[in-house]
Write a structure and sequence with these properties.
Length: 283
């Protein structure tokens, strides 16, 4: 095992593949011991500990199995007719087989990866290599050209969401992207546009505050308040305005799909939301 690899996941995978292995726990205080036998992660309901059988009977409705491991609890609850979502976290960066094998056994319709492209691209690629056909969706952490470079052809058909529009979303973003490439010799990514607008908002807020308070230095709270006082600001990504809580008055969320092996993806849906109303103060 290498640093940051998933030792538990690898052990479960090796055991599932027929290898005789155990997990050794070594703590910082020098304590060393063997973990529970790996076969327990694959045991049938009748062989579970009494407290596990009792707990599983309490499951109702929609179930989130956090740290699902090999999936024995999720699979049992699915047999009982419950709607179950298995969740497994990892710091693995190279071999995702220990996660993909039990994942494939559950035959999910969708795999949602809540991380960054350097893991997500490789996970998606290995999923497809192992025959997992589930839809794949990620957050703005995979909103990058690197996702396509890492995943390759496997990226085609996958989805991601982002608060930042793609560079070809509007005439304004396209024009800015063209100027950016002329200046820096490379394509801008969505968060480059977003970051540019965020910087301009900050500069505009400071200009307005300093004009009203010449010769003074603002506090952090005053900077925050100045940003919230921005009204009708026209950025590259569109109109920007905040409420008194600092939320965008109207927020846009983009759902995109890699319809080909190229970045950015194609916008398939735009969701717009008004900022939630402020909670009434208690008397």
């Amino acid at each position: 095992m290498k640093h940051l690899q998933d030792a538990y996941g690898q052990a479960i995978y090796d055991f599932h593949s027929g290898e005789d292995c155990n997990v050794v726990i070594e703590r910082d205080d020098g304590y060393i011991d063997l973990d529970a036998p790996l076969k327990r992660y694959f045991s049938e309901y009748r062989n579970w500990a009494p407290y596990e059988r009792l707990a599983i009977k309490c499951a109702k409705g929609r179930v989130l199995d956090v740290g699902c491991g090999a999936g024995r609890h999720s699979l049992h609850l699915q047999k009982l007719g419950l709607n179950v979502l298995g969740y497994e976290g990892t710091e693995e960066r190279a071999n995702f087989s220990p996660m993909i094998i039990p994942l494939k056994a559950k035959n999910p319709a969708l795999v949602y990866f809540g991380g960054i492209y350097h893991q997500g691209g490789l996970l998606l690629k290995q999923m497809r290599e192992k025959g997992v056909k589930a839809l794949f969706m990620g957050p703005d952490g995979v909103d990058s050209e690197e996702m396509v470079k890492i995943a390759g052809a496997a990226a085609v058909g996958s989805y991601y969401t982002s608060v930042a529009p793609p560079r070809d979303a509007t005439p304004d973003t396209a024009a800015f992207a063209k100027k950016y490439k002329q200046r820096f010799g490379k394509e801008i990514e969505a968060f480059g546009l977003y970051g540019y607008d965020a910087t301009l908002v900050g500069i505009k807020a400071m200009e307005q505050w300093l004009k009203a308070n010449p010769g003074k230095k603002p506090t952090r709270a005053q900077v925050s308040s100045a940003v919230r006082n921005i009204k009708g600001f026209k950025g590259v990504t569109g109109a920007i305005e905040f409420d008194n809580k600092g939320d965008p008055v109207k927020a846009k969320y983009f759902v995109l799909q890699f319809d080909k092996q190229a970045y950015p993806g194609k916008v398939v849906k735009i969701i717009e939301h008004q900022a939630p109303a402020a909670l009434a103060k208690k008397p």
